[in-house]
């Protein structure tokens, strides 16, 4: 199993100071930097694309974890790979060909992730277990930071954990993770905790020492 990692989402950072915000997050102990890409179509919000990721790359020492909330995905994979993404996560709901998408991500030399919306069962990832390095369980409906954690998704995390067995697949949890929810999320089996507002809006994220999580607050 993996040590717990905290992945601050720059969706909650100062949009005029992303470089400094990424450095501050890493200096505070962040392991990964989570970049939320939204297209105003798959989700009802717009953020940034590959050019922004490329500009960010020199400001991130560790893992650039890019969460693609876009449809279609395939036309943009190479651009995000060229921008220096270490992980590219696509949604199982984003189109009819998630398997092809994951193949293309790996063919581009990038770790492949699949994300599951709150309305999607863990079993949707079952046929993809040999195709993925990460499964992201959404604990909010994607589109916006600062939403409340959907506690019923703890069962989906447990289901994913049981399903992956001893495969070396990260379980990432995204949405509403803060000091209150992080311990439950870690206990359910997640090892990558995305946190936006809790990190960049004055709060903090921690999981009990037993789970080895860093504490990050900026
Ligand atoms: C939601 C994004 C999340 C979000 C998390 O669509 O995928 O990464 O930024 O933000 P918080 O931690 O504020 O829920
Ligand atoms: Zn995200």
Automatic annotation (TrEMBL):
Cofactor(s) required, per the database record: Fe(2+); Co(2+); Mn(2+); a divalent metal cation
Residue sites binding a divalent metal cation per the record: 34, 36, 67, 174
Cellular component GO terms, alphabetical: cytoplasm
Biological processes per GO annotation: pentose catabolic process; pentose-phosphate shunt
Substrates-to-products reaction catalysed: D-ribulose 5-phosphate = D-xylulose 5-phosphate
Transit peptide is among the record's keywords: no
Co-factor binding details: Binds 1 divalent metal cation per subunit.
Superkingdom, taxonomy of origin: Bacteria
Residues given in the record as substrate binding sites: 9, 67, 143-146, 174-176, 196-197
Membrane-crossing segments per the record: none
Recorded GO MF terms: D-ribulose-phosphate 3-epimerase activity; metal ion binding
Active site, UniProt feature: 36 (proton acceptor), 174 (proton donor)
Entry keyword set: Carbohydrate metabolism, Isomerase, Metal-binding
Enzyme nomenclature, EC number: 5.1.3.1
Pathway stated in the Swiss-Prot or TrEMBL entry: Carbohydrate degradation
Protein family (similarity comment): Belongs to the ribulose-phosphate 3-epimerase family.
Role according to the record: Catalyzes the reversible epimerization of D-ribulose 5-phosphate to D-xylulose 5-phosphate.
Name of the protein described by the UniProt record: Ribulose-phosphate 3-epimerase
Biological source species: Kangsaoukella pontilimi
Residues represented out of the complete protein: 55 to 272 of 284
